[in-house]
Write a structure and sequence with these properties.
4-stranded antiparallel sheet; 12 strands; 285 residues; alpha/beta
Length: 285
Amino acid sequence: MIPEAMHTLNWRQIDALIDAALEEDLGLAGDITSTAIFDGGQRISARFVAREPGVLAGLNVALRVFSRFDPAMAAGTLLPEGAPFSAGAELGYVNGLAASVLPAERTALNFLRHLTGVATLTRAFVDRVKGTKARITDTRKTTPLLRGLEKYAVTMGGGINHRFGLFDAAMVKDNHIAAAGSIGAAIRSVRARIPHTATITCEVDRLDQIEEALAAGADSILLDNMTAAELRQAVALVGGRARTEASGGVRLETVGEIAATGVDLISVGALTHSPRQVDIALDVQ
């Protein structure tokens, strides 16, 4: 089953990530620049300001960085998660000791800029398939240990989540088929051993593999690296007997044509493995 969204974040895991990221930046000595400039009593106010347009994701994580570093800091949002913004928009704020705000600044921005980049790229893909039934979904091509956050950012951009990991849905891929001997053998082995509530997706890269996958009981057919003409034929061959998913090398320039073939889903690895960070700064007022 592909969840519609993953709005619930695991804050225990996120706190561990934040703590590790702060330790990476601060080392054993801490922020030697801020420590040298500030005596510990000077307070400042700062705002997250966008330097370019985007779709917001991860401001909640960025603000959490400051509270992890110094629980006495005050921080809040000025825009909700998932909101589009223009250049110059103020997204959130933080007030506290200069010696606390400035050492946490870069770690907070690293999370915010990256996750906003994921959401912004996702929204661009979602916009390109409007008017079709196709939905944009992510993959497991994520940054190690950031999968939960990156998949969350995908939902903020209007996409949906594919399986979270190897544990929550079965996917029979080319190497499984090669090792098992056939598509049918692989699917039947999986079906015999997984819970009855779990679904099976089968990856095919040729039209003549579709009927075997359907006959063996695949719930979803992943059409790998097929042309638009092949995708149309595949959708017709499936005939509504399973969900269809286009995958492989999907780009903004091609996603509209792919969506027009009638597939149900389009999975895009680039959402999480190749997003460009959105330029956001923390400006002291």
